[in-house]
Design a protein that fits this description.
The protein is mainly α. Helices cover 74% and strands 0% of the residues. α1 (7-23) packs antiparallel against α4 (94-114). The longest helix has 27 residues, at 58-84. The chain is elongated, with a radius of gyration of 15 Å.
Length: 116
C-alpha cells in the first residue's frame, strides 16, 4: 500500500498544516526556538510513516510508526509548553487533531503487530 493511501498519513499531514499555520502567530524570537522544534516534530510524523511504508516490510513499517508516535508525543509536549507560555490557548483545536492522529496511529500500530 502506498503511504498516501493511509488514513494515518493523511491525518498527520493535516496536523503538519495546522502546526505551520499556528506558528505564524508566535513571537518572532521563538522562530528558532520552540517553533523550529515543533516544525521538526510535526514533519517527522508523516515522514516516518512514509519511510516505513516505503520499506515494504511490516516489521520496518511498525518500527517507523513507533518513531512517529514518539514524534507525536514530542509535538504534544511542545504545544503544551506553548500553552503554558500563553502562546496558544490550551483549548486550541490542534489538540483535537493530535488526539485524532494518536488514535489512528495507535490502531494502525496494533494492526501491524498482528501481522508480524
Amino acid at each position: 500500500m502506498n503511504h498516501k493511501d493511509l488514513a494515518v498519513w493523511k491525518e498527520s499531514m493535516k496536523l503538519v498544516k495546522e502546526v505551520y499555520g499556528l506558528l505564524k502567530d508566535f513571537p518572532p524570537y521563538e522562530q528558532f526556538g520552540i517553533c523550529s522544534q515543533m516544525r521538526r516534530s510535526a514533519v517527522s510524523i508523516p515522514s516516518n510513516i512514509a519511510e516505513g511504508a516505503g520499506r515494504n516490510n511490516n516489521k520496518e513499517l511498525l518500527r517507523f510508526c513507533l518513531i512517529s508516535q514518539g514524534s507525536l508525543s514530542e509535538l504534544e509536549t511542545q504545544l503544551l509548553i506553548s500553552a503554558e507560555l500563553d502562546y496558544i490557548s490550551s483549548n486550541n483545536d490542534i489538540f483535537d487533531q493530535i488526539t485524532t492522529v494518536r488514535k489512528i496511529l495507535s490502531g494502525y500500530i496494533n494492526y501491524l503487530k498482528t501481522k508480524l
